[in-house]
Amino acid sequence: MIVIAIKDFIIRKGLESILRKNNMQHKIICIKSSLELKQLLLDERPRLVYVDNNRLEEFSLLQKEKAIILVEIFKEKTSVHSANTMNHILCIDGEEVEINRQIKQHLDLYENSAERKKSDSELSDRETDILREVALGKTNKEIADYLFISAHTVITHRKNITRKLGIKTVSGLTVYAILNKIIQMEEM
Amino acid sequence: MYIDKDMKMADAIHYNYLLLPVINRLGVQLGFGDKNIEKVCQEEEVDLDFFLVIINAFLDHDLNKTLKIQSVSIEKIVDYLKATHQFYLEQMIPEVENRINALIQNFDINQNQFLLVKNFFEEYKKELYLHTQLEEKTVYPYVVDVYQAYQSHQLSQELLDRIKDYPINSYAQEHSDIESKLFDLKNILIKYLPQPKHSYQRNQVLTALFKMENDINDHSRIENMVLVPMISEMEKQLLTKSAQK
Ligand SMILES: [Fe+2]
Ligand SMILES: [Fe+2]
Fold this sequence. Notes:
The complex is a heterodimer of chains A (188) and B (245).
Chain A: E1 2-5, H1 9-22, E2 28-31, H2 34-43, E3 48-52, H3 56-66, E4 69-74, E5 89-91, H4 96-112, H5 114-120, H6 125-135, H7 140-147, H8 151-165, H9 170-179
Parallel strand pairs in A: 1-2, 1-3, 3-4, 4-5
Helix pairs in contact in A: 6-8, 6-9, 7-8
Chain B: H1 9-15, H2 19-25, H3 37-44, H4 48-59, H5 63-67, H6 74-105, H7 111-152, H8 157-165, H9 168-174, H10 180-192, H11 200-244
Helix pairs in contact in B: 6-7, 6-11, 7-11, 10-11
Bound molecules: fe (ii) ion (2 copies).
């Protein structure tokens, strides 16, 4: 998921349409306030976030914790940027070619972040264990007891499973588990 | 984009063809030539304002557009919601079913996979049926009763008890979700069934599901954002009035 958290409406919309052109497969979300952004960061795991340059401070902690790529927006070129921050900024005073070059760098970073590959799609072994029990019709409590973990942990795993697979209901998860041979039809 | 009364009915359809079943439910059938919306509604005896708020809320999910539906009478809204249920049960469900059956006829998937999909949708169909029955047998009649009591300032003891015991908000809390299963089925077809030789048959199922989901989203929005808050407000006022007596 890519998030655009920029106050300026025109910049927000402009960046959104450029990103959409370059990048069809990822979800893009636009938000106005930093409050909304904080909430979003708590609920979801965006990997690439565009913010105004004066708001970077607020999110630096989150960045470390969740391995988010934060890109600062600058209205004009400044000389303060060192080489290693160069690909974490976007100067919007360039022409199309220049803007696209910068954005491509951000998207490359995003695509290559190991974190994304690991956690965005494939289920972990633990999640697969839990999916198996869910598909067999067990309740959260039963799963927790069976796997010696708390019910709260089960719920967190279930949320992640749903997010990764794009399947919300128990019947849907059961179909997925059968198709992927996590459970057999006869076990039902 | 705001659709207004001067727009040609045909242009509204060209703008977004998903409006087709919506205008049908509102009482407009095809064959309207080049007439504008106002004229067509007049001839078909369809309430123009109602027509406009419904189609605009359908096209634009902005909350304010949806809230505009509150300006029309509850009876009209309920009739529209019922017609929508009917459309799901009599048209959309059979359409999806036929297209799912075509998957096996065309060897798009094997017998076991077919049964998984078929049973999954069968389950959904039952859920949808129970959901709409509950609304039509209990919720909507109650909604109309509250509205009439509110209009006529006459509140029977029976209705008063009902408001106290089972107000509209308890329905809202239990209002079950009839979208998630559709969402799941879409992903199963898009991502998780093994690759077919040709995707055409599967696309057919998917397009029907996308259409249905879009329509159901609109329907649930009207129930949750329009009906529930309106009735809840009327309940409150009826209760205060009866307490004053
Ligand atoms: Fe309904
Ligand atoms: Fe409903």
